[in-house]
Protein 1
Amino acid sequence: MNEPDEDAAAETAAASPPAGLSRRGLLGLAIGGGVAGLAVGAGAGIAGGVAIGRARAHADAQPVHEFFGEHQAGITTSVQDHLHFASFDMMPRTDRDDLISLLQDWSYAAARMTQGLEVSASGAVGGLAEAPPDDTGEALGLPAAGLTITFGFGPGLFENEDGDRYGIAALRPTGLERLPAFLGDDLSPQASHGDLCVQACADDPQVAVHAIRNLSRIAFGRARLRWSQLGFGKTSRTTSSQATPRNLFGFKDGTANILADDAAALDDHVWVASDDEPAWLAGGSYLVARKIAMLIETWDRVRLAEQDTIIGRDKGEGAPLSGGDEFTAPDFGGASIDANSHVRLAHPEQNEGIRILRRGYNYVDGNNELGRLDAGLFFLSYQRDPEQFITLQRRLSTDLLNEYIRHVGSGIWAVPAGVKPGSYVGAELFA
Amino acid sequence: MTTFHRILGAVAATGAAALVLSGCVAKSDVGAAAAFDVSSTDAGCAVSAATAKSGTLTFDVKNDTDQVSEFYLLAEDGLRIVGEVENIAPAASRTLTVVAQPGDYFTLCKPGMIGEGVGKTAFTVTGDRVAVDGPDAEQKKAAVDLYAAFVKDQVGQLVPAVEDFVAAYESGDDETARALFPQVRAYYERIEPVAEALGDLDPRIDYREVDAVAEGLDWTGFHRIEKDLWVPAQDALNADGETPAWQDWAPSTPAERADFGDLLLADAQELYDYVHSDDFTTALEDQGIGGISNGAIALLDEVATGKISGEEDWWSGTDLYDFAANVEGSKMAFSLVRDFAAAQGDDGKTLVSEIEAGYAALEESLAAHGSLADGFVGYSELTEADKREFTDLINALAEPLSQLTGTVLD
């Protein structure tokens, strides 16, 4: 949550492409600016000028998150208000070079957009009149809005029914495979899986959507959008300064989440360690996404005492039913917390100390054809090992809450470590 | 990835005068000129040889018919024009000069300047590729001339095809008319942006019922006839998914059929007259190669917005024919400007190879569902996965293609 000065931000973003950006990226991003070499060679200067357009608004103290670093941003980053999450499949006929060039181009664009810059130096209005602009333009004049862009690699990227398309099958982490079937799953292929994922979080929904839209456009011909999800009203907090938000059941969610300043818990439960397998994923994590539809109308007819029993906490304060306040540890010894309440089944104390970092969002996708809200929780969690999620989810098979939810989407991705300046996300895979 | 080399852009040719052409090739390091004699007769198009070495070729075309005639050298797909001479008066001779690259071609004459032509014969060029290094402006002029020739050729085939189609429709031979419908439209779909530039002509020829109603126009043209030929069920809905098919509509009476048929024919003739007018030539020349490039883009947009959703040929389900013709027309226009893009350094070459790979992938996908010659499956037979694949491939092609105009004008 640093606040880099504008020129530094511009130079960081613009200085990286010559080293990492592919020829393909130059074409897509810089051709509109005329001669590609010129656009990149003069990148810092041009970007400095562009920065005025979007970075000026930093004055209102909106955070800017560094794209480069030890870990990818968007995991421990203080949870932003809005989400646009997208899952992509690689296109048929693509090869290893296409994948690498895509990751390079995405990294370049993400490095710029997270700093509040347009997607390329010529941007939305600085290119040729005779060519479509590189940047789609709807974020012109908006600040970075805390944008983070986090990339992940799904099981199918390493190997699918077409085989080892990119020469990385041997590098697939053992645990990176489709999640097993869980009781109550009603998964839709239209909201599940994918070779690649991009999590864009920002405090302004337009900034998050702008990021996914432009990354999708850059991907055309190499990767195709498989599904995407908008989210709002963060349902977790990752810093102690954030108040615990509420999900669409009206309950506080994420009270016991792992926080950004708890380095020991992050090392134990979230980051893949350097002596974990595989070595290339060290400093990374595993991301699980679950689209969990809520039967809103049914839930809203449940009496308050029953709602409290199902969750195991009181609705007003979020305190465990065993007493105290929100941050009091629940006491599962007595009869006050039901054995099948959500809080008990999901609690580390009942799961050999297993914890995960949750980062989910509420969603409302309009309504279904029956006139019911198509709403729920877009659950996102980061963990050091997929087994953490699998164990917890199995534990929830008797959850009283299951009567009011359906898991309709699912995906898992390996999230590589942070990007080194001048490099690109996932470069370790192709070393 | 598949790449395919097209010779068109590298070929200097014009229908107008050999004088211009000699300028185009003056600086070229090409093989010695080889000369061929062509005799255009009522039923044939005899060329003195069927093979040549790559380099500058001249065809001396003698018109032995009593109508104005034309001579074409076509690319291996029999569609794209490599070079042509037009307006050869009876008993007169004119010369076509082209720089021909190795490959398979067809020769063809078109007495009367209309229809499919006669005497289509394979013509093979062997040897090495030859470099063409003419003055840029002349090459651009040649590209515009070739695009004009392509448009005239398509409209020239459209008119007699519409005549046959309308004759069947007006006489109540619906089976024949249904078979002709998608084939006739292909000539129009390949050059649709030209007609769309004419204001009221495209609405009369090609508006769907929902469009005409929305704009308060009389509904005429191909799609009016289409609904007569594929009469909807009583409970069917129109393309808006809401309006009953039979609301404010009834099958045309014979008298109405005569009106709609004759109007379509008159409109096709109007299009023919326009593309053979100085206005058309001037408009094309004003737009230059940017106009051709934009035409390539516009045709692909047609596919992306109308054909992929099956809204174009709502009653007949022949959308894939239109789709294929749009892609052919787009590729033809691209092929005329590809060398100008390829000349813009490595980025230009990359752009060209991406566009070519995009066309190849899209063509391959289309071919899995049929062909213009042998027919396509109906739109309703496409699965959601098929439509998704088309959409992805169009995105993959359209994104680099959208950079073409900016690149060739750079």
Protein 2
Amino acid sequence: MIRLALPLLFSAALFSVGVYGVLARRNAVLVLMSIELMLNAVNVNLVAFSQRIGEITGQVFALFVIAVAAAEVGIGLAIVILIYRNREMINIDEVNLLKW
Amino acid sequence: MTGQEWMFVVLGLIGTVAAIRLVTTREIVHGALYLTVTLSTIAGAYLIMAAEFVAWVQVLIYVGAIVILFLFGLMLTRAPIGRAALDNQQRAVAAVIGLAILGGLSYLLLEAFPWDSAERISGDPAGGTAGALGESLFRDYVLPFEAVSFLLLAALIGAIVLSRKDDRAR
């Protein structure tokens, strides 16, 4: 028996750390890692609520989120490597060609 | 507090500290290793919540595959060391925003699910077995499952097209 507040607080901590990482890091790979932290926080919530109400749908969606995160990392790293090949650096604050 | 709750608290603290080290470390490869620690503690948290299939998928996909992808990404790009190379100038603002989100979320969550309320996760092992998940996945969610497999195929082709060397341009 686990209090529902525990996993929720854990995921809140993971999510806010991920937000800090996305905002404060300039290396693109570290930004992608911080995004993974936020996706994992969502998964912890999905599994916790799924086990609380005894309905398995939440865990199915956690699996979907994991699969989409894997696709996201693959594409994200391909783009990062492409940027590195063209510009010899992956600082995302210097890749501002499309910024208004 | 029960034994499971103490175990969850220990895992949660390890995971949170490793996550904080991930976003503050000055060596980028250490960051990838801290990410491994965090993802593993999350898998442990799933096990404590008796979601065994999701826990092993977490170990296989995240700890096994995604961290390796990140390490390859670090290997193929330059891995700079030092605060100026890894962080931008907005650290203070980012810390304020992160702490505000943490405070707001914690307040709302503890308001909705108070510490001494009766809301408990049962930890029934039958609630997260591969059989139960597979039945739900292939009975109620076949279409989203196929859509995800199509998405993975598209991501695969996209990654190949993006990272292929374009010889005609040279």
